[in-house]
Structure formats: C-alpha cells, structure tokens
Design brief:
Rossmann fold; 2 domains; 8 helices
C-alpha cells in the first residue's frame, strides 16, 4: 500500500515517514501544500496523512481541491488540539478521520489501518485467504499457522492482493501502489515478487490472468466485484 504524508514540520514529517515505512508501507512525502496537492492529484495513493497548517496552500484547500477533482483516497487530517473548528471544517471538506496534535504515532498507524480496511471493505486487521493470514497491525504473515518471512516488498505485494482478493490487479496498478517515487520500477520486478510469494506460501492461489494481471483467488475460486477492471495490459505472463 502506498501512502502520502503532507506535513511541514521536518521532524514530524520524518517521524511519520519512518514509522509508516517500518509498518510496511511505501511512502512519499511533501512539506508544503502545493507539492502535496500535486502529488495527491497525480499519483494513486491508498491513503493520505494531511496537515491543515501548511505553507503555500493550506490543508483544507488541498483537500477540497482533491475532492472537487474526483480524488477519493482516504484522508487522515492532522489538526491542532484546541481548534475544534478545524476538525469540523476538515470533515466537511472531505476528510475521513482526524488526529489532534500532539499525538502518538501509534494512533496515526491505527487510524490509517482502519481507513484502509474500510476502503477495501474489510472489518478486521486480520486478512484471511485460505491458509494464508496477514495481520496488518503486526505486519505478520502465517500459512497453515506457520510464520512466513517476507521482505518488505513481498509483504506489500501480498497485502495489496489480500486487500483486493478476488479482483484482477494489473501489473501497472501494483507498481503504482507498492513503490514510492524513488524506487526503480523495473517492469519485471512484480513477476519476480509474485514468484517468490508463490514459493514461500506454497500456494497456487495467486493466479496469472494472461493479458490482464494477477488475482488472489478465494478458497472457493470466486472472483470478487471488479474482477474485470484491470487496465488491459498485454505483457503479464
């Protein structure tokens, strides 16, 4: 899952980015409203952490512009503790949740997990597909009850597929949602990680849909809603 942090305090920005990366997310960051607005308007983020008090363009204006432009990613707003009016204005502008400063990083992580769960239609932090279990809170994966050791990129790939079980996900979509801007996005990387996951999980539930992408099948093999919504690329093998 790929997130964006828009926070003008350099220390807090760094702390948030480090914590989110440690939790298994790909993260981009901006320190002013103009850059944050541009990134959120042009990149497919799964969620955004957005401060209200930003230079160049304030957070509420950024959020209102995103929503007016049809951007629907979940947004967690950072507000000042004594500004209840900011909280109300933020929710009215399209924020999905808010955290008041000062806050514990763990609260931000928990609220983001909740936003990502709701966006994908899941009620629990634990995602289950057959023998595979992924705990988004602890970033741990088990298969038939045995722990599975994954690299950060393997974990991100599995988490994205499990959040979208039963739906065909194109390689383009995976690349856009798993890697930050600085990652060298080699077109063959996804195939390599898919192969590693199949081997480590000893499963054939990750299906290659020729010409479209990949699908993590549920145990009964039923595809979920949106199964035909991949981008039609022809290079998947």
């Amino acid at each position: 899952m790929r997130l964006l942090v828009v926070e003008d305090d350099p220390d807090l920005n760094r702390q948030l980015v480090e914590a989110l990366k440690e939790a298994g997310y790909a993260v981009d960051a901006a320190e002013d409203g103009e850059e944050g607005h541009f990134l959120g308007d042009t990149e497919p983020y799964d969620a955004v952490v957005l401060d209200i008090g930003l230079p160049k363009m304030d957070g509420l204006t950024v959020l209102e512009n995103w929503r007016a432009g049809g951007r629907t990613m979940p947004v967690l707003l950072l507000t000042a503790r004594d500004r209840w009016s900011d909280k109300v204005a933020g929710i009215d502008a399209g924020a999905d949740d808010y955290v008041a400063k000062p806050f514990h990083i763990e609260e931000v992580l928990a609220r983001l997990r909740a936003l990502l769960r709701r966006a994908a239609g899941h009620a629990s932090n634990e995602l289950v597909c057959g023998a595979i279990r992924l705990d988004a809170r602890t970033s741990r994966v088990t298969c038939d009850g045995a722990p599975v050791k994954l690299t950060s990129h393997e974990y991100r790939l599995l988490a994205y597929l499990m959040h979208h079980m039963g739906r065909i996900v194109s390689r383009t979509e995976l690349t856009e949602h798993l890697y930050d801007q600085d990652f060298d996005r080699d077109s063959n990387t996804i195939e390599v990680f898919i192969g590693r996951l199949r081997k480590k999980l000893d499963t054939d539930m990750i299906e290659t849909v020729r010409g479209l992408g990949y699908r993590l099948n549920t145990p009964d093999g039923a595809a979920g809603e949106g199964a035909g919504e991949a981008d039609g690329e022809t290079s998947a093998r």
